[in-house]
Predict the structure.
Amino acid sequence: MKLFKRHNNVLPGFGVTLGFTVFYLSVIVLIPLSALVFRTMGLTWGEFITTVTAPRVLASYKVTFGAALIAASINAVFGVLVAWVLVRYKFPGRRIVDALVDLPFALPTAVAGITLATIYSSNGWVGRYLEPLGIKVAFTPLGITLAMTFIGLPFVVRTVQPVIEEIEVELEEAAVCLGASRWQTLYRVIFPVLLPSILTGFALSFARGVGEYGSIIFIAGNMPMVSEITPLLIITKLEQFDYRGATAIACVMLLTSFLMLLVVNLLQKWSRRYAE
Amino acid sequence: MQNNSNATITDRAQTEPAFVRRALVTIALIFLALFLLLPLAAVFSQAFEKGLVVYLEALKEPDTLSSIKLTLITAAVTVPLNLFFGVTAAWAIAKFTFPGKNLLITLIDLPFSVSPVISGLIYVLIFGLQGWIGPWLQDHDIRIVFAVPGIILATIFVTFPFVARELIPLMEAQGKEEEEAALVLGATGLQTFFRVTLPNIKWGIIYGVILCNARAMGEFGAVSVVSGHIRGMTNTVPLHVEILYNEYNYTAAFAVASLLAFLALITLMIKTFAEWKVRQQLENN
Amino acid sequence: MKLSKLTTAFTALALALATSTAVLAANVTLLNVSYDPTRELYTEFNKSFAAYWKGKTGDTVTVKQSHGGSGKQARAVIDGLEADIVTLALAYDVDAIAEKGLIKPGWQKELPHNSAPYTSTIVFLVRKGNPKKIKNWGDLIKPGVSVITPNPKTSGGARWNYLAAWAFAFHQPGGNEAKAKEFVAKLLKNVPVLDSGARGSTNTFVQRGMGDVLLAWENEAFLAINELGPDKFDVITPPESILAEPPVTVIDKVADRHGTRNVAEAYLNYLYSDEGQKVAARHYYRPVNTRIPTRLAKVKFYRIDDKAFGGWQKAQKTHFADGGTFDQIYAPVK
């Protein structure tokens, strides 16, 4: 217990809440995930490396992580913009727009994939206008990015939105009184406050994109080496009853996202300190 | 009441020039229209393609009704559990300092980044017949995977971080001075939580619950792996949508899908109403 | 409020569990785990069987259906989905279940015709009027012909497509392994999308308007025409194709534990009865009983047991396992 120093904290409930958190986390997440690691151990180290660095698999990492990165960046920019507009500006239909933001959560991913393919395929509502311009969305890597942007958007908006709501007017007033321009206020005062939540939103959107399966297979085209995502390769392995190969790739994905999330959480901690 | 000069400062502090505002709103709306409104419109236009009668007919089908029931049960178990977890975890993480905190936060985030395919698979690896305790479960005639408990477990997994993730940044931003003051004034721990902390994090909780609920009802990938797809028994609404679509029953598929879209709109109406109610209460006081 | 909701949920959960395990004396429930294209077939067949069984024994039998990709369904059964019966797309998937000891070895000899009560083949679905004049497999590799087929790695039907093309090229004058591989590689060059399942491909072809020709199960092609409009598509049956034998079997371990062996076996035997065969024929499967009339065109069949393939185990290994011919075709050029 000495390990968990309380830093003179007078608040109660630390032991109980942390204990429950760790317990629930273990039962629901950690123990089941460890099954994955154990299944992989059926492979020798050499087999493991061969499995996870096969050219097809490497190509799929590139497609999956690349598309997720682009999608998360798009979401970070537009998500913050949307959150800002929703909280700060009054315009007709604001409530409806606010409601729409949750749509990607509520719509089953399969439906999202089917719908996006419907809209962006060459005979779809939007696709038919893009096709003559030489832009093909459905059944290309662009379609993958599109689907990932769709499913990741609410993460940024919904993490940034409450923080914008919490920003105290006094902070901005003080900045103005001290002679800051609006741009300076935004950049120096508001942005640092928002940064942790933007990073969280970015990370969540990225991570969700990397793992996404249901909506993407409908719009990706699934061509080996070109538009084949990593989760699809896992499914492919499973279909051949190759559990160990499937869990090996799954482990790589798991480890990558874990490291990625860890870095972002550390970044957040740093940015929070910077903000203070 | 504020005097005049104060009001101008507030205005200047809080808004941008009108043309900037208009431009930003326009950009945001165009983006949302392309990414959200269009898909939504597509769902509804296909759902009502053959008219209201066919739409309602599709929803009355017994397999559809049983899938709706299963989805409601799943959400009703998942959301309270994850809500309770989210609040406890946020309390421990936001109000205290301890080594390994970042690791813990990262582990809580993990289910987001785990591919839904994997989140279903892990439960099969444990509870499946070839898994760790599958054979034992079978001997005792307990069914976890390919039955309702497996669907609930997978749903809890994928919606695991939602409430916690909403609350942690919020509670960290708020600090703990207010709680400390309450405790100094003699309140018990629980009183402090319910009277001081809870009102402060109310909106965070509501956001978290809405997201958790929406995702719980809409999850497809993970549930698909553990469901077994038995018609009328282990099909949730999203799985049923896929089945209908694969039966070339497009209108019915989108009709059922539109239910989930409606759900998103209804939860938001509830949220808006609650906000309005609270503001009214404040004004009356 | 929240607590009462939770209690209700648990009660409902308990009820759901209770009903799923209870088996009443005269009410028998069977679970038939099948692949994608058979849903309409078994919906009708189950009704027919229930009536037959009621008349024979007085018991009410309810057959629950589960459909999905053949490999995925086999995996679910291996992992504990309690199927009394499986009716899958390929013997390879049933073999995988048997390997885990859930089915007795030699299952394929238990019922007539390699345990396949109906057969099917691979045909072409083309746009109305067949604008690209596609008549046989050779037409598929012509430049400018866009072919839609699912991914053989994830779809049983796609494996039949692949093998049918292979068999065609292999049996051409002067055909051999290398020529066949070259042919299939050319064909795959004309494929713009590899959906994960057969129904996904049909939707891509029909709904998205992609492709000039869809390689499909014969029954799927006719079903698509019936469901989606005969004015939009034509079925082209090539003069030669592969004979697909989707096998059926009782999952011994599960049926014995459920005490449903009798009715499960009766169910499968009923598939071979005149009535069962007629249902299959109605859904555009080819009945094995030659006395039952069929509307389907005559085709010169290649078989999976032919010299070209040497059975499912070998074919799977040569073509679809990691590093097999399918992977080689898509391997990056160094």
Observations:
- The longest helix of chain C spans residues 2-21.
- The longest strand of chain C covers residues 27-35.
- Chain C touches chain B at residues 2, 5-6, 8-10, 12-13, 16-17, 20-21, 31, 36, 39-40, 64-68, 76, 78-82, 100, 197, 199-200, 202-203, 206-207, 223-224, 227-228 (CB under 8 Å).
